[in-house]
Structure formats: C-alpha cells, structure tokens
Design a protein that fits this description.
The complex is a heterodimer. By secondary structure, chain A is an all-beta fold. Helices cover about 0% and strands about 50% of the residues of chain A. In chain A, a hairpin with a 6-residue loop joins strand 10 and strand 11. The radius of gyration of chain A is 13 Å and the shape is globular. Chain B is mostly beta strands. Chain B contains no helices and eleven strands. In chain B, a hairpin with a 3-residue loop joins strand 4 and strand 5. Chain B is globular. The chains are: A mainly beta, B mainly beta. Chains A and B meet through strand 5, strand 6 and strand 11 of A and strand 5, strand 9 and strand 10 of B.
C-alpha cells in the first residue's frame, strides 16, 4: 500500500542554519507529494507541493524536489528562523479521491 | 471563502456521553476527510467522502464512531458513547480535485474525562 516515511525528530537548529528533513514514499502509480506545516495549536497548512517527477515545490524559502528515482521528497531551507519552529508533515495522494497519506511528522525547534 | 470551519473548537465531556463534531467544507470541494491526531498515533485518517458518499471508513476505530455527510456543505462525526481514549484533536479537511491539496480546519480538541 501507499506510505510515507520521514525522519524522526525533534530537529533542533540554531537560527540561520541549513535545514533538511528527509521524506521517502511508497506508492502505486504517480502520486502527488506535499509538505504541510502545523504551528502550535493550529491546523495543518500546505507549505508546498509537486505533482510530477522532477517538479520542485517552493514557498517561504522552503524547497522540495520530487525524485522518482529515489522515491524521495526532502524538505530544505537555506536559513531557518525561530518562526519556522513547527511540526512538518510529508504526505502523498495517489489514485482517486485525493486520499492524503501522512508521514509521522517531524518537530523542528529553532533557537536564537 | 472562510476556509474549512469546524465546531466546536474545544469539547470537554464525561465518559459515556455522546459527542458530535461538525464540519463545513470549502464551497465547491467534493472530497471531505476526517482525521484524528494524538501524540501516540500521529495523524490517522478516519473516513473520507466523495460527493457526499462515504468511500472508505476503514480508519474508524470502532462502532462507537459514525460519520455522515447529508449534503455538500456539512458533515458530522459522532462518538457514542465516548471514552477517555477518544481524547484527541479531530480535523476535518476538504479538497476539490484529484492531485490537489487538502485544506484543513482548525480542529476540535476533544477531552473525555
């Protein structure tokens, strides 16, 4: 079946450090891939997405490239800020009905 | 659009009571999802609807849980009777087409004492 595996957290970084959160997936067909972010006490918000191989999604300085050959969609940011502290979820949809399958989430804490 | 609207935001109830959570999806979206989030189990998909029809309810934990979508603008998730282990944040989400993202509500934090 379809599944998403992402690196366990928490990830603790200093402000302006480089961020990578790994995400790999297993899916039949050609999934769409997403990164969602959840700030404390809030719902999930879409951060970025990619719908086909080699697409790069980007938003707010975050980037992720859809790599079909390695079935990966790693999230990166060149310089994190304290305000980026949140939980990040990798997800995919495959097949009909947009059923979203989530990874376990990775908590990021950024310190001044 | 106001986004996905869930009510109530917080619910505290006693064990054995019936609880009803409500969701209004974004107008024009034809898929609706109910998720549960806990520290132990993360985000779990409970059930999803397409064009008001339940497509997959395999994530519903047991018969105490039921969900309905009587029309395109409203859905409910009911727990009866509630138990302390049902305490969690319940999210509703909607989307409009295959391959597109889902939009989430703010969630309902349920505490069963």
């Amino acid at each position: 079946g379809n599944s998403v595996t992402q690196m366990e957290g928490p990830v603790t970084l200093s402000e302006e450090a480089f961020l990578t959160i790994n995400c790999t997936y297993t899916a039949t067909g050609y999934p769409s891939l997403f990164w969602y972010v959840q700030y404390p006490g809030e719902g999930l918000q879409l951060l970025l997405k990619a719908t086909k191989a080699d697409d790069k999604g980007s938003n707010k300085g975050f980037e992720a490239t859809y790599r079909k050959e390695t079935t990966s969609f790693h999230l990166e940011k060149g310089s994190v800020q304290v305000s980026d502290s949140a939980v990040y979820f990798c997800a995919l949809t495959s097949g009909g009905y947009n059923k979203l399958i989530f990874g376990a989430g990775t908590r990021l804490a950024v310190h001044p | 659009d106001a986004g996905v609207i869930q009510s109530p935001r917080h619910e505290v109830t006693e064990m054995g009571q019936e609880v009803t959570l409500r969701c209004k999806p974004i107008s024009g979206h034809n898929s609706l999802f109910w998720y549960r989030q806990t520290m132990m189990r993360g985000l779990e998909l409970l059930i999803y609807f397409n064009n008001n029809v339940p497509i997959d309810d395999s994530g519903m934990p047991e018969d105490r849980f039921s969900a309905k979508m009587p029309n395109a603008s409203f859905s409910t998730l009911k727990i009866q009777p509630s138990e302390p282990r049902d305490s969690a944040v319940y999210f509703c989400a909607s989307s409009d087409r295959e391959g597109s993202e889902a939009f989430f509500g703010q969630g309902t934090r349920l505490t069963v004492v």
